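Example record

The entry below shows one chain as it appears in the dataset: sequence first, then structure tokens.
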Amino acid sequence: MSTRPTNGDPPTDPVGQSAPGLPEPALAAQAVATVLKPLARLMIDHGLQLPSMLELLKKALVDEAANAFGLVDKGSSDTRIALLTGVHRKDVKRLRETPAAQAGGTPMASVATSVVARWISEPRFLNADQSARTLARTPRRRIPGEPDFTSLVAEVSSDVGARAVLDELERLGVVELREDGYVVLKANAFVPHEGLSESFHFLAANVSDHLAAAAHNLKPDRSGPPKLEQSAFSQGLSAEQAAQLQLLARRLWSDALRQFLQMATVAEQRSEAVDGPRYKVRFGVYFNDTAQIVQGPDAPLAATQRKNKRKSKK
């Protein structure tokens, strides 16, 4: 079991200020590669594809370079931003002129989502009661004059095959392919879950602030003490013990939350009479359990292996 800052405490000088250092692109790349794995899962789960994400990343790089790395009294030119970020100068100019709401370039919905949207809205694909028609998977299987799933996909995109779209919709549980070769759209397909938009809002706010604290602590030229950003972890646990720790974590968070909110209420009241800049704070906690990958000669031994090893030494 161990507890440590997830990014470590950078070196400090005798008065508690961080010692200036040089950027560490190789170490940063290793950290980013790990951070990108759950982000990739989120993208795949919700139909975010690479072109859209690249546009979002370019926009974020340009905005941060312009806002946080401008020269005193000069701001940042397109050329300077291009040098800092690696984004082409033509893209820098375009993105600086693009309102935030339009960033992303291409629709965020995947082809699969667009197929369902057309299926439930285009009269040709609807029954008399406005429910989605059951569609033959291919033109060969359909009754003459009726629409089919392959033609539906072709109306939405010529770049993605109907079989690939069908596989994705089946994976999401949105459609069912019957034995007779017809595709059925399930009744509640792609209806947003209650509170889903709020969940995405808090995902963005929580993870953004957590990562911002970690990035602040690792700034080569950071001044002042590091922000709180620590975690504790345990390994080699059974499923039952991991579940018990999750219950404990929830109880601890409930107690901490109550105390923090009480103090935050007092802090907000005291701040009303104070002039000057305003700050927002976020105090959070997370718990994650995942299957432990055991690899290499230095990996922890399983319980039975440890017992056998001890016996062999006697």
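Notes for this example: The chain is about 45% helix and 5% strand. Residues 10-18, 102-109, 298-314 have pLDDT under 50 and may be disordered.
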